[in-house]
Amino acid sequence: MEKNGNNHKLRVCVATCNRADYSKLAPIMFGIKAEPQFFELDVVVLGSHLIDDYGNTYRMIEQDDFDIHTRLHTIVRGEDEAAMVESVGLALVKLPDVLNRLKPDIMIVHGDRFDALALATSAALMNIRILHIEGGEVSGTIDDSIRHAITKLAHYHVCCTRSAEQHLIAMCEDHDRILLAGCPSYDKLLSAKNKDYMSVIRVWLGEDVKPRDYIVALQHPVTTDIKHSIKMFELTLDALISFNKRTLVLFPNVDAGSKEMVRVMRKKGIEHHPNFRAVKHVPFDQFIQLVAHAGCMIGNSSCGVREVGAFGTPVINLGTRQTGRETGENVLHVRDADTQDKILHALQLQFGKQYPCSKIYGDGNAVPRILKFLKSIDLKEPLQKKFCFPPVKDNISQDIDHILETQSALAVDLGGTNLRVAIVSMKGEIVKKYTQLNPKTYEDRLDLILKMCVEAASEAVNLNCRILGVGISTGGRVNPREGIVLHSTKLIQEWSSVDLRTPISDALHLPVWVDNDGNCAALAERKFGHGKGIENFVTLITGTGIGGGIIHQHELIHGSSFCAAELGHIVVSLDGPECLCGSQGCIEAYASGIALQREAKKLHDEDLLLVEGMSMKNEEVVSAAHLIQAAKLGNTKAESILRTAGTALGLGVVNILHTMNPSLVILSGVLASHYINAVKDVIHRQALSSVKTVDVVVSNLADPALLGAASLVLDYTTRRIY
After folding, report:
1. Where is the binding site, in residues?
2. Which of 86, 92, 375, 527 is packed most tightly, with the most Cβ within 10 A?
3. Prediction pTM value
4. Which domain holds residue 519?
5. Residues known to be catalytic
6. Residue ranges of the chain with pLDDT lower than 50?
7. What is the C-alpha to C-alpha distance for residues 316 and 333, in angstroms, rounded to an integer?
């Protein structure tokens, strides 16, 4: 004790509320009692320990030869939500007097029960240090909230798994005050299995029962859905009756709904059924032997997913009460236990199996670690706990300069040729734009994106623009939820399975959104263009390729595999030209800039492209622009190619009208104005009369890709659902 500067024994108060938490606290209590030169132990008993219906389990504490300093009757009967609240209140009324008399240096509190919350609240308000056992774990129901609330009140933490330790750190708890010790009950479990167990089995299940030929059932109410948990318990009992194996059923805990569960047991005659033994309590030493040699354990107790794994006993975990707990391979989850057949099938799968023993929750050496941790506590340290929050920038939201800033987004457009970054205001004004050639390799491209974004973000400060986030428009198939480019178009090389969000967000410390360029064009129209206020519309981009986006009921459609609105790959001819996607007859194979360039080269190679008024330099590359110029100057072959391209695009639009029935079609991109008349003509000739009245317009947005990327950010900041 000299190490921590304490000149007296550490006075430790251990408060236990029920049979479950005592199984975890007892090994620690034995360890404290065994070192009287370092510790003074005071035991406070409350909760269901003192209720006859739950077995008067305080007696096992006395049988373990512990002196109980105080017994507090804190349970208000009723077994409903109000009774739980009243029980917490009653404990809060009674505990201050006890703690004033005991004056402990530290109180040890276990787990996630409502009684434990009252203990932690009382101790924290009375300036008593708290050591919390089993913080950081995850499970279902209200227990999660209570456990994390106790964590916030506690000064020291003993956790059982590496994940729980990481959760505590993520909750801003001081790493120096967290001990990864393992579960104290494992100190007993791992040495218990080989003890005499046949006599225990005979006492609780009968003389004729053999090991691995019986079931242990322990099911508690789920306080956030009492009605469903009672129904699930009824189905469980029906399945156990049908399964026809000897079963030990333990009564549920004192939570709201327990009274109704007991009624279900009695209604089905479980207490008098020849295959069942219904008991209120089994001493922990004997309970260990029973689950260690059972053919199966069923229910929703944390014991099933935690302690039973030490023996490899099969477990069926029912419902959501333990959702999120780490489990071994011995646990079969039946999360939606809504039919008797489903539970019966789980019993048939699990009963009698033997799994490898699991040590997820401990290695049998938790208590020595905890005692060493207790000895290291320095009572001279300030009592007020500190939270280890991650570093954040100073909040300047009330500074006048900050208020006057223009809220803006960084927009990135990854095209087949150019890489562009722009600062875009909330009103859709492009404040400043940066353009570079798009590198050919992944590493160079990502480096350039980061460099351009950093430069733009720095310049935004000088322009009095507050950057809210980064939006990225890119070709290919994109998972916008994860910010990953799944598959690239052939126009952008080395651009598949690329996580764009993480490196850019890490570098700029800003949120990042990523989406397909066609989707971004649709978002741009929804926020800034013809689509503003329109419930259902489609945008078609006519550029190097053909893409698009669909807005349905004001929201963007991504599709189940993020492949919606690949409008350029609508097939309009079974024997048409080959498309870059590998298919034939796609709109893109007819009407894209690449397709027009292909046809222009064919004409040029045959000396059929140039007409009077046109000229080309020797080194000049033939492009779609030359084909359009030739058509304008009367080249009939060029006119025919453009007419075919416009017809193909029009047929694709007719298919879209018949599928989605939008009220507006917006043609966007450099070729839109050349195609609009042809598209309208095809709609007039080919579409059903009910959709012929659709509006078809050319986009009035100068830069839909950048504006769409910006809207990914700006829509979120204005609380649009996206």
Report:
1. 477, 489, 517, 566, 569, 579, 581, 586, 588
2. 527
3. 0.54
4. 400-528
5. 517
6. 1-3, 395-398, 402-404, 719-722
7. 6
